[in-house]
Design brief:
Blueprint lengths: L8 H10 L1 E4 L4 E4 L10 E3 L10 E7 L31 H8 L5 E5 L3 H7 L6 E4 L6 H7 L1 H6 L4 E6 L7 H9 L6 E6 L9 E5 L2 E6 L1 H4 L4 H6 L3 E9 H12 L3 E7 L2 E7 L2 H10 L4 E6 L11 H14 L2
Parallel strand pairs: 4-5, 4-7, 5-6, 8-14
Antiparallel strand pairs: 1-2, 2-3, 7-11, 8-11, 9-10, 12-13
Helix pairs in contact: 1-6, 4-10, 9-10
Length: 317
């Protein structure tokens, strides 16, 4: 019979750094991978950690992906190992993210093929939140307003559901930086900025996140100075997030999209506007740069999916 082992916050934090997972349904904490003796370790916890030790997370898994025309399902379920005979070994993008997040309550924002997403994750202790209309990343956060209000964790992660390679250590560093900031944006320095949003910074803080459609028209010198791109992953303090949701809800942007063969004007909400509101209110928004650009690889088109699968195979021969 296994004897339960009690531990405190520092022990939990140490395991978070080293790349562990916590199944909140059974309170089974396990080390992913192998130890020095090539033995998998398991630690059975007698009680859940205090709420202040947990990090809540919102994972946006609502969309199909407009550039995934050959795929009809939810893109967060696209497998990194499609050739695996065992479905459990196919490793959907979403499962890689869920395995790497810090321990704590988690919500999936769903819409497109929501039943498929729920079926693929029904063995996990998750809250499912339907985004009634696909109205942007900010719309996903607004849809999660009740979950934010009801979940008492002080520290939160917000992430896209198609960025599978962010390491547990990186999430931990984001959360740790909240000791000195109200929000932290994950950034990266790519060789080619393509059409990414960029961080306009002032020392160690973010002044704004500027989308490509705006920064592409900046003077050459100003464009060249913008070297940090937005990964679309954030850590934020709950009380600050709650305080600024009304501002986000009051500031939709009108965008034009082709729908059913016609261009239509629709209202969308963006997390970048939430960042702008915090900065304007005098909140400290910091940034953290990951040195490994592949960590922030988003799977948003067939070429990116092929690259992600190749990278996964190299790391998991």
């Amino acid at each position: 019979m296994r004897r339960p082992l009690e531990f405190g916050a520092s022990f939990l934090a140490d395991f978070m750094v080293k790349g562990t997972f916590l199944d909140l349904g059974t309170w089974r904490l396990g080390r992913r991978g192998r130890t020095e003796k090539n033995i998998e370790r398991e630690i059975f916890v007698s009680a859940p950690p205090p709420i202040d030790d947990l990090v809540a997370a919102i994972v946006m898994a609502a969309g199909r992906g407009s550039r995934m025309s050959a795929e009809s399902g939810n893109k967060t379920l696209l497998p990194l190992m499609p050739e695996a005979s065992d479905p459990a070994q196919r490793r959907p993008l979403l499962m890689e993210i869920l395995d790497s997040l810090p321990p704590g309550p988690r919500a999936l924002v769903v819409h497109h093929c929501k039943q498929d997403v729920m079926a693929a994750t029904d063995h996990l202790p998750l809250t499912y939140i339907e985004q009634p209309v696909l109205n942007g990343t900010g719309g996903a956060i607004l849809a999660a307003a009740d979950f934010i209000r009801q979940t008492a964790c002080r520290r939160w992660i917000i992430t896209m559901g198609d960025v599978p390679f962010v390491r547990p250590q990186t999430y931990h560093r984001l959360v740790a930086a909240l000791a000195f900031s109200d929000m932290v944006v994950l950034g990266f320095r790519p060789v080619d900025k393509k059409q990414y949003g960029v961080l306009e910074t002032d020392g160690e803080t973010v002044r704004r996140i500027t989308e490509w459609k705006y920064w592409k028209d900046y003077p050459v010198e100003r464009r060249a100075a913008l070297t940090i791109c937005n990964a679309g992953i954030y850590a934020v303090r709950r009380e600050v997030l709650r305080a600024h949701l009304p501002t986000l809800a009051a500031t939709p942007q009108v965008v034009h999209k082709r729908m059913d063969g016609q261009m239509r004007a629709i209202e969308e909400y963006f997390i970048t506007d939430l960042v702008a509101a915090m900065v304007e209110a005098g909140r400290r928004v910091a940034y953290l740069i990951t040195e490994d650009e592949s960590e922030t690889m988003g799977v948003d088109d067939p070429q990116a999916l092929a690259a992600a699968r190749a990278l996964y195979r190299r790391r998991n021969p």
